[in-house]
Specification:
Chain lengths: 395, 88
C-alpha cells in the first residue's frame, strides 16, 4: 500500500514490519519521530514489543545488546552525538556477534552546533564492525531495514547493521512509500532464533576474557563474517526483488556507468540529485555516470576494481572530512583501485558539510572538473567545494 | 592450547562462574582484623570491591580465596582495626 511518509516514519514502519521485539531508544534531533512513532505502535498494540525508554544512547545500545543476547530481535535509532556516545558499546555489539539493527539519522558533529546532514557521525563509526548502509530515498530506508535483519541474522554473518538516512533531507521530507504487506514480510523474514542465547536455568558468561593465545581467532571469525556479508547482501536483495518487485543496487549502485568516461562516487540522498545531473549531461552528449556507495561496510572493493578498469576519472564526493587525511570515502576508493590493472584519476570533493546544499549546478561543475583533470592531470587531490573565501565558484 | 578459529564459538562464552578465578592468589598484603577494636559498623563490608568480606555475628571475616589485598577496608575503617600485613 502506497503512503506518503517521511524517512523517519519509513524507518519506524520498517522496524514494525520486521517485528522488532525490543526497542530501546533515547530521543535526539532529527531521529525523534522514529521512536515516537514506534512508541505509538507499541502503545496501540499494533506492534507487540517491549519499549524501553533509557537515559542515554549508551544505555540504549546496552539494552539492545542484553535483549539480543537473550534471543530477541532488537531495534534502536539515533543520530550524531547520540551515535558517537554509543561508540564503546557499538564495538561490543559486533564483537559479541549480535545482529542488532539501528537507524542513524546522519547529522553533522558539533561544534559548530548543527542539526543538519553530513556523514561525519556515521563515517566515524566505520571501524566498529557494523555493516553500514547509506540510503537515498525513504523507500530504500524502509526496504533496507527489513533486508538488514535478514542479512545480519544469517548464520554466516551475525553482525549488527546501521542504516543511514540523511538528516531532514530524508528524515523529515515526505515521499510516496510502498508499505509492504505484513504477510509478505513474514514470509521473507523468519523470526529470529540464534543458536546461542542466555537462558534461565542455564547460566553462561558472554564476552569472557580471552588471553593473547586465543584473541585473534575471534577477530578472524568476525572478519570472515563481514566478508560473507558481501554475497549475503546480494543474495538477500535478489530474494527481496522476487518477493517485493524492488531492488536498490547491491553494494555499489551503478547508474549509467556502462560506457561512462568519468563517474561521480557519492553516498546518501545527494546521489538521487546526481542521477538527474547525469541524465541532463548525457542529453548533451557527455559520457558520465554515478556510482553510489550503498554499503560502506562491507566496502564494495571488487565493484570498484571492476569500475576502475572502465573509466578515466572518478570524482569522490565526501560529505565529511577526516582531519589530517582526506574524505574517508575517497581514501577507501583510492586504496581499492590502486591494485586494479588500469588506474583512473581519483579526486576528492568535500561538500555539503553541516547541511550545506549540494545543488545540481555544483554537481555539474564537479563533473566538468573531473573531466578536465582526468585529461590534464591532478593539481590538488582534495578540494573543498563551495567554501566562502576560496576563489573558485561552484554554483 | 590455541584452538583453530574453526573450533571456537562466535564470541567467547564461559559456562563456569567467575568465582572459579581464585583472585586471592594475586595478593601480596593481607588485611588482619583486630576484633577487640571492631565497632561492627560494617563499613569494610560495604566498601570491599570484591565482596570478599563476610559478616559473622556482625564482625568482618576476610575470604582469603578472593581478597586481592587492595587495602580499601583498612583505609576506610573508622576504628582503625584493620591492618595490612605483608604475606610471608
Amino acid at each position: 500500500m502506497r503512503e506518503v511518509m517521511t524517512g523517519n516514519y519509513a524507518s519506524a514502519y520498517g522496524a514494525k514490519l520486521a517485528r522488532a521485539e525490543v526497542i530501546a531508544a533515547y530521543p535526539i534531533t532529527p531521529q525523534t519521530s522514529i521512536v515516537e512513532k514506534l512508541a505509538e505502535f507499541v502503545n496501540t498494540g499494533e506492534l507487540r514489543a517491549k519499549f524501553i525508554p533509557v537515559e542515554s544512547e549508551h544505555s540504549a545500545m546496552a539494552a539492545c545488546i542484553a535483549a539480543e543476547t537473550a534471543g530477541a530481535r532488537t531495534y534502536t535509532a539515533t543520530s550524531s552525538h547520540g551515535l558517537t556516545l554509543m561508540h564503546e558499546v557499538l564495538m561490543w555489539a559486533s564483537g559479541a556477534r549480535l545482529p542488532i539493527v539501528m537507524t542513524n539519522v546522519s547529522r553533522a558533529m558539533a561544534p559548530p552546533w548543527s542539526v543538519w546532514v553530513d556523514h561525519m557521525d556515521s563515517v566515524a563509526q566505520r571501524d566498529t564492525g557494523w555493516l553500514q548502509f547509506f540510503c537515498q530515498s525513504n523507500q530504500e530506508v524502509l526496504d533496507t531495514t527489513i533486508m538488514a535483519y535478514k542479512i545480519c541474522e544469517s548464520a554466516r554473518v551475525m553482525l549488527p547493521a546501521m542504516i543511514i538516512e540523511d538528516a531532514f533531507i530524508l528524515s523529515h521530507t515526505s515521499e510516496p512509500v510502498d508499505v509492504p504487506d505484513q504477510r509478505l514480510v513474514d514470509s521473507f523474514l523468519p523470526s529470529y532464533s540464534p543458536d546461542l542465547k542466555i537462558e534461565i536455568g542455564k547460566p553462561m558468561g558472554f564476552g569472557s576474557l580471552v588471553k593473547p593465545d586465543q584473541y585473534m581467532e575471534f577477530r578472524y571469525k568476525a572478519m570472515e563474517a563481514m566478508t560473507a556479508a558481501h554475497d549475503r547482501l546480494l543474495a538477500v536483495e535478489r530474494e527481496f526483488r522476487d518477493v517485493f518487485g524492488r531492488e536498490h543496487g547491491g553494494l555499489l549502485e551503478r547508474y549509467k556507468c556502462e560506457d561512462a568516461e568519468v563517474v561521480l562516487v557519492a553516498a546518501g540522498s545527494v546521489a538521487a540529485t546526481a542521477k538527474d545531473v547525469v541524465d541532463a549531461l548525457r542529453a548533451k552528449g557527455h559520457k558520465v555516470g554515478l556510482a553510489r556507495i550503498r554499503s560502506f561496510r562491507p566496502f564494495p572493493d571488487q565493484e570498484f576494481k571492476a569500475l576502475a578498469s572502465k573509466v578515466v576519472g572518478m570524482a569522490v564526493l565526501d560529505r565529511s572530512y577526516t582531519f589530517g587525511a582526506a574524505g574517508a570515502m575517497f581514501t577507501e576508493v583510492k586504496a581499492s583501485v590502486y591494485s586494479s590493472q588500469k588506474r583512473p584519476v581519483v579526486k576528492n570533493y568535500i561538500a555539503g558539510l553541516g547541511g550545506r546544499d549540494i545543488t545540481p549546478k555544483t554537481i555539474e561543475k564537479i563533473f566538468e572538473d573531473i573531466s578536465i583533470v582526468s585529461r590534464r592531470g591532478l593539481e590538488d587531490e582534495v578540494e573543498w567545494v563551495d567554501v566562502a573565501g576560496l576563489p573558485r565558484r561552484w554554483r | 592450547m590455541t584452538k583453530s578459529y574453526e573450533e571456537i564459538p562466535l564470541t567467547p562464552i564461559s559456562s563456569t562462574p567467575s568465582t572459579m578465578n581464585l583472585t586471592g592468589l594475586w595478593r601480596v598484603v593481607k588485611p588482619v582484623v583486630d576484633k577487640s577494636k571492631c565497632k561492627k559498623c560494617t563499613i569494610c563490608w560495604k566498601y570491599c570491591p570484591d565482596a570478599a568480606i563476610k559478616l559473622v555475628g556482625g564482625e568482618p571475616v576476610i575470604d582469603l580465596m578472593y581478597c586481592k589485598g587492595c587495602g580499601i577496608c583498612s583505609f576506610e575503617c573508622p576504628a582503625k582495626c584493620i591492618v595490612m600485613v605483608k604475606e610471608g
